[in-house]
Amino acid sequence: MYSPIPLTKSEKTGVGYWEAYSPKLKRDVTLLGDLEYDYWLFIETDPRILSYCERPILIESSFTSKIITSVPSYWVKYQDNTEAIIKVRFSKVEKSKNGKLKNQLLIEEQWCKEKNIKHCVVNDQEIRSNPLLLSNKKLLISIVSNRLHPIDTDIHLISQILSLKKITIQELKASLDSKIPFLRVTEGVCWMIYKGFIKSSLDRAPIGPKLEVWIDE
């Protein structure tokens, strides 16, 4: 298990940072810059990920007679017990053939190879390709952060109605016949999406009455 490497004063004042609460980790996370925050939304809401850590380790290696250091953006552990180290970068930096970034990626890849861990690089074009999805993930985290656990009776009642057929939250509410207040229907659905119990149209519709949900085969 890893612990986050603290941000330096220069890092905090340079690109800025975010502080957010992680329902998955049950702790606050500190994220360097807007892009790492945006990618955190994907990590936090990915039900395949059991655990993760921001800025998990300082990797050092001698390279061309110099000591090169790099701090990966994230370490993640999946349900199948596989692990990955993730580097978040702007595409313009990747395309600029930045020597420092190239060396950092090389020592990260080598470290991952030695540890038998997957190494991934993601950029802003991938992360920000769907602004609606990002907005929905942010709201999803906000909603599930309001309670430590979902309301079991709500989840049970919602589960009885859901099927392979897509249904909107508005239709779901009507089917429940006022057994659950509308806001709690939305909250219950969000918990089920967050836990990976159901699929949804988060990439196409905002969280609300017109959001479609269904059970995956």
Shape: elongated
**Strand order, biggest sheet?**
3-6-7-8
Number of domains: 2
The Cα radius of gyration reads 20 Å
Name the structural class: alpha+beta
- CATH class value of the largest domain: Alpha Beta
CATH fold field value of the largest domain: Trna Endonuclease, Chain: A, domain 1
Task: Classify the helix fraction into a percent range.
Answer: 40-55%
Ranges where pLDDT stays below 50 over 5 or more residues in a row are none
- How far the N terminus sits from the C terminus, by CA atoms, comes to 33 Å
Order of helices and strands: HEEHEEEEEHHEHHHEHHEE
Fold topology:
Layout: H1 9-14, E1 17-22, E2 27-32, H2 33-44, E3 49-54, E4 59-63, E5 66-70, E6 74-78, E7 83-89, H3 91-95, H4 99-115, E8 118-123, H5 124-127, H6 131-144, H7 152-161, E9 167-168, H8 169-176, H9 182-195, E10 199-200, E11 212-214
Parallel strand pairs: 7-8
Antiparallel strand pairs: 1-2, 3-6, 4-5, 6-7, 9-11, 10-11
Helix pairs in contact: 2-6, 6-9, 8-9
Structure description:
- By secondary structure, the chain is an alpha+beta fold.
- The chain has two domains: 9-127, Trna Endonuclease, Chain: A, domain 1, CATH 3.40.1350.10; 145-214, Orthogonal Bundle (Arc Repressor Mutant, subunit A), CATH 1.10.10.10.
- Helix content is 41%, strand content 24%.
- The protein has helices at residues 9-14, 33-44, 91-95, 99-115, 124-127, 131-144, 152-161, 169-176, 182-195, and strands spanning 17-22, 27-32, 49-54, 59-63, 66-70, 74-78, 83-89, 118-123, 167-168, 199-200, 212-214.
- The two termini are 33 Å apart.
- A four-stranded mixed β-sheet has the order 3-6-7-8, sandwiched between helices.
- The mean pLDDT is 93.
- GO terms for molecular function: nucleic acid binding.
